[in-house]
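hi! just following up on the protien thing from before. the input was this:
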Amino acid sequence: MKAEDLKKNEWYEIDNGLKVPGDPRVVRAKLIESPRQGRGYKEIVLMDVKGSDVGFFDEIGSVYVKEIVRRIDDQA
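and the predicted 3d structure came back as:
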């Protein structure tokens, strides 16, 4: 995805190496901060990553924008 398309407090599917190939589960992450910075956009954003979706810990941390796959609409 492009950084311009990201919105704060929205849920996204990310592919940062936690997902096991062939496993249908996805890693969800909620965007915590705006990707906009001054006149441009950030390459790394702060997200609440739900690693428990694939058997790891939930943590808030930095995620590369290039690792964000798509927006997830059905999250509460």
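The chain is about 0% helix and 40% strand.
The chain has one domain: 3-72.
cheers
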